[in-house]
Amino acid sequence: MGLDDKIGNKTEDLKGKTKEHTGSATGNESLEAEGKGDQASASLKDGVEKVKDAAKDLKDGLTK
Question: What's the pTM value of the predicted model, to 2 decimals?
Answer without folding.
Answer: 0.82
